[in-house]
Design a protein that fits this description.
The chain has one domain (2-291): Jelly Rolls, CATH 2.60.120. The longest helix is centred in the last third of the chain and has 24 residues, at 243-266. It has eight helices and 14 strands. The chain is an alpha+beta fold. It is globular and about 55 Å long. A nine-stranded mixed sheet has the order 2-3-12-9-14-7-6-4-5, with helices on one face. The chain starts with a strand and ends with a helix. It has helices at 14-22, 39-42, 45-52, 80-89, 101-104, 187-190, 243-266, 268-291, and strands spanning 2-4, 8-9, 28-30, 56-60, 76-79, 95-99, 128-132, 137-141, 148-154, 158-163, 203-209, 214-217, 222-227, 231-238.
């Protein structure tokens, strides 16, 4: 993999952000944005346990999905407060995915503000919380709704790999899914280049998010995240400004995902074989192009 650092700024003008990052589809870390919000100082484990600790949440382990697994299927369910207490006590390879905390505690929305000076189209019903214990992993994927994301890290540190959407075949994207067939866990020490050689060609970015850092991920960006320390993050999602971008997200949500789920239920092994054959055909094409 050919990895570069992500630009980082304390603050940025809307004009610079639009030209250099939003329109150019380039990621950016803004270190000062969240420091203006009350949540920067207020949010911690005990605060959330008190606010919504009695709510049941789906938790996800580090095992990658297989031929039978529909997208976003939880591995277990538990009380949010119980989960957070386990996270506080030490390493825990469980994470929470797309938890709409604010639906259960709407007063928490007043703890931050929507940065509409940077971009429009925020989906204000769905600010999402992501929580992970030390050692938990979010496997390589892109967000199915193809929204732009402002992802702010709180507590702890998290390592992030980013790749533009166009690198999908070098990353061994599963057809009809938003996931990679390859396992990027601990990629620096043990990535399997023997079985996934095209990944050597993938051009992307590497960074570590710390408390208060906000990452701008342009629509469709692939990302893999490893929790170096227990922590949580909030994602604010903004729909693309173009009609084509919006329709692409709608298709992924209601067309692509429905077809894939149906096929996994009715003919999982055949469906998996068909996908795997196409994955390697497209990846080998990238390898051949690189030789020319």
């Amino acid at each position: 993999m050919q990895l570069a650092p992500v630009d980082s700024v304390e603050s940025i003008s809307p004009e610079q952000f639009r030209v250099k990052y939003y329109d150019a589809k380039q990621p950016l870390v803004i270190t000062g944005l969240a420091k203006q919000w009350p949540c920067y100082h207020k949010w911690n484990w005990d605060y959330f346990i008190s606010a919504v600790g009695d709510k049941e949440v789906g938790v996800y382990n580090n095992i990658k999905s297989d031929a039978y697994t529909p997208i976003n299927t939880a591995d277990a369910y538990m009380k949010f407060g119980e989960y957070l207490r386990q996270v506080k006590n030490g390493p825990l390879e469980l994470r929470i995915f797309l938890f709409n905390l604010f639906q259960h505690a709407p007063e928490l929305v007043s703890d931050f503000s929507w940065p509409e000076n940077l971009m429009k189209g925020f989906v204000k019903k769905y600010p999402m919380l992501f929580v992970g214990g030390e050692g938990s992993i979010t496997h390589m994927h892109f967000d199915i709704d193809m929204s732009h994301i402002l992802h702010t890290q709180f507590m702890g540190k998290k390592k992030v790999l980013l790749f533009p959407y166009e690198e999908q075949h070098k990353l061994y994207r599963k057809p009809w899914e938003v996931l990679s067939l390859a396992n990027f866990a601990k990629y620096q020490e043990q990535f399997d280049y023997n079985n996934f050689p095209a990944a050597k060609l993938a051009k992307g970015f590497e960074l570590v998010l710390d408390h208060g850092d906000t990452l701008f991920m342009p629509a469709g960006y692939w990302h893999h995240m490893e929790y170096l320390e227990s922590g949580f993050a909030m994602s604010l999602r903004a729909m693309q400004s173009t009609l084509g971008g919006k329709l692409n997200g709608v298709w992924n949500l209601f067309g692509m995902r429905s077809i894939d789920t149906l096929m996994k239920k009715t003919a999982p092994e055949w469906w998996y074989r068909q996908k795997k054959e196409k994955i390697y055909t497209l990846a080998n094409r990238e390898l051949e192009l690189a030789k020319k």
